[in-house]
Amino acid sequence: MTIRDTHPVRPRRPACPVCHSPTTPARLAVAGSDYWACPICQARFLDPGQHPTREAEHAHYLIHRNDVDDLRYRRFLSKLAEPLLAWLPPGSCGLDYGCGPGPALAAMLREAGHGVALYDPFFQPDRSVLASTYDFVTCTEAAEHFHDPGAEIARLMALVRPGGWLAIMTCFQTDDARFARWHYRMDPTHVVFYREATFRWLAAQQGWSCEVPVKDVAIMQRPRLPREFAP
């Protein structure tokens, strides 16, 4: 499977939902689904007209078994937790966005002495937590589900206080030739796929720094306020 710019039936070419670029993206046709490759931020995404319904999403999420006490799941999340914890000041306050039914990462961060609020549109839908700002915001295995990733990531960035961190974990897409057979694409609720370059582009647009301590983890830091404006 290769990226193609032409096809016998030319579907509407959507703008990139991550960076909103109007530049014509290249099309990846896979098993009756249309994916697009953005040349600006390097994201790949499912055609918006083919997104799953909210009901189908919820039903699929209920299949997941993410136990807070599952040691294998904790080891998986430690890819993000360990580098983030190395940077957090003691007693930081954060938000786990898209925590799912088993918020293991929040438990790990709380055990390390940090406060963590929870938000998930299906399993922790208390939107009052979105009215605050935080020293850090985490988003693990959720960004690939965003139907409007540009707006969602902008929201996450707005929740971070100056000097704070936004830590995202999602499986980075790296090879278009293998995209059709990629296990991550085969999840019907995964609609957008990021590359390391995508997160570096997003950070640069806002003047944030971006570190990729390990593959599939991007940790972006919001600039601190100039000393004269610090509270």
Précis, in short:
The chain is α/β, with parallel strands linked by helices and 231 residues long. Helices cover 23% and strands 22% of the residues. The strands form 2 sheets. A 6-stranded mixed β-sheet has the order 5-4-6-7-10-9, sandwiched between helices.
Overall description:
- The protein has about 230 residues and is α/β, with parallel strands linked by helices.
- It has one domain: Vaccinia Virus protein VP39 (Rossmann fold, 3-Layer(aba) Sandwich), CATH 3.40.50.
- It has five helices and ten strands, in the order βββααβαββαββαββ.
- The strands form two sheets. The chain has a six-stranded mixed sheet with strand order 5-4-6-7-10-9, with helices on both faces. Strands 1-2-3-8 form a four-stranded antiparallel sheet, with no helix packed on it.
- β2 (about 35) and β3 (about 45) form a beta hairpin.
- α2 crosses α3 (about 105-110).
- The longest helix has 17 residues, at about 70-85.
- Mean pLDDT is about 90; it is low at about 1-10.
